[in-house]
Amino acid sequence: MKIIEVENLRKEYEGEGIITKALDGVSFSIDEGEFVAIMGPSGSGKSTLLHNLALLDKPTSGTYKFDGKPVENLTDEEKARLRNKKMGFIFQSYNLLPRTTVFDNVKLPLLYAGLKEENENDLVRESLRAVGLENKIFNYPSQLSGGEQQRAAIARALVNRPLIIFADEPTGNLDSKSGQKILEIFQDLNEKGHTIILITHEKYTAETSQRIILIKDGKVESDAKVVNRVIAKNGLIK
Amino acid sequence: MKVDDYLKTAVTALLSNKMRSFLAILGIVIGITAVIVMLSLGQGVQRLILSEIESLGSNTVFILPGGPKQEQGPPKFSLEMLELKTLKYEDALALERSGPYIMRSAPAVGSTASLTFQNKKRSVELDGVPADYVEISGDKILEGRFFNEEEEKSLTKVAVIGTTVREKIFGESDAVGQTIKINKIPFQVIGVVEIGGGMPFADPNDAVLTPFLVAQKEILGIDHVNTIIIKSETVETLDLAIDEAKKILRQRHNIINPKDDDFSILDPKTMAASFSFISTILTIFLSSIAAISLIVGGIGIMNIMLVSVAERMREIGLRRAVGATRKDILFQFLFESIVLTVLGGIIGIILGLSLSFLSGIIIAKFLKVNWIFTIPILAIALGFFVSGFIGLVFGLYPARRASNLSPIEALKYE
Questions:
Q1: How far, in Å, CA of B351 to CA of B343, rounded?
Q2: What radius of gyration, in Å, describes the C-alpha atoms of chain A?
Q3: Is B323 within 8 Å of A76 when comparing Cβ atoms?
Q4: CATH topology for A2-235?
Q5: Domain-by-domain residue ranges, chain A?
Q6: In angstroms, what separates the C-alpha of A228 from chain B's closest C-alpha?
Q7: Contact residues on chain B for A111, CB-CB shorter than 8 A
């Protein structure tokens, strides 16, 4: 089943009389369970594409169906609810709240989900276990390494059991070893059925996915399955 | 988001910047403290005045010279009444021998006078009172005796002094038997009396009492009286005694139309109402001035909240990304400002009550009055809700600014 369908998506920015085309007629679809890397050089429009797919931004024109339903006419509140129930977010700079424990950081999306307290706590623990941070629940972000902080951010993205995870340059701030570990987690999650869309400008990172959509000047330059997929586990190529 | 989550988020945010939070609420703390102190002291003054009035006895009425002003509300006591000459000694005598309801009628004159003893000089309150003054007032003779009717009639120059005069002029040495000069006229001190009641914040014992006629004729050289005090048999017959007094005075002064009355009746109820009215107006006025600092405090809160929103743009973006609606963000920041101001309010209430209590002790000690500390329940409730309201009003703009940010704009903020 298709989880994302975009058709002729355009995003234009206007400033001082000049119109900049960030997305220029992008069309593709992504099936449930896919692990897709959106790759491209800096300024190619890949982040703009992710923000539009994640309903954080609004395209200038084009159609977008998420989980089979068009999203153009959704209200701000409906989009927020959709992000909360069906999407998970991972950012390059982790975006963890300082002076808030790992546990409470991971719990953040659940605050807006209206669940019962006991269920919330179970979900947080389960999520932290999935990324191997169950022993650091009462630590503060400043007490964690970069890799651990990103793992906490992944736990936060997983906590509401989303249909899809959007990751924007998740290894961009990490050393290679920590980055490797994060990619390993992504592959693991994908194997368990999670749909993942990963933004990167690194070929190696992109090749850990199953499919690479290459964006250049706001257009899809290529869209192909990964032939020699990098298996992050132990850094081996299968 | 649940209310307790909003609260927890607000407290975490405020605790993460303790000094700033403290400085932000300082304005509110000062404002609420000032309002509480003003209201508490205002209530205390009111109670003090009312208890002084009550101590006069609820079957006592003052007749003052001059007709009541043609205006609404209770008659107002004014200094010009002391200058009016419409009441005479004979009026008091006539009331005394009148009908069944007036039990006692006593004239009184009062003025400031200069008291000298050897090389000591003091400005005191001089009261010319009848020989049975202590029976009417209930004041206590501490040394010697009070003057009698004989001395009053024969215009004997004897004086009874208040405790303050005794202490300031004679100190440890004997006062009774000494000769003092009142406005340069020699008087023999025959007793010391502890005078109760009087006007609040004025020491009633800084006074000299002489026989009425001596004060009126010999010292002040006047023909009129300042007050006639009448007493009814019981509290229930007070109104009848007042009617009786009015009737007699109108007859004596040839007044047909009550509008032309050249005297006013000041009964305890009217006095209490009059003083309550004045002190309420004064309290409201002073509290309003204090409340201005609350507005200043509110602006301080708004300023801090705007800084907080600017500093936490990425947090706002993140929250929006993971599912917070505009309303969630609005409420989050509103809760923060309300928690801040209510906290300020609570501290202000505690400080205000402590200061009021301390002020009460100081007032009681230095002004020698029976100060009753009152906890102004209304002011506490008001302080609590006003501080919350300020948080709501002044927090709304920053909170709206935060909630109107687009998620991507907030996330991209550097």
A1: 12
A2: 18
A3: no
A4: Rossmann fold (3.40.50)
A5: 2-235
A6: 34
A7: 1-2, 5, 9, 324
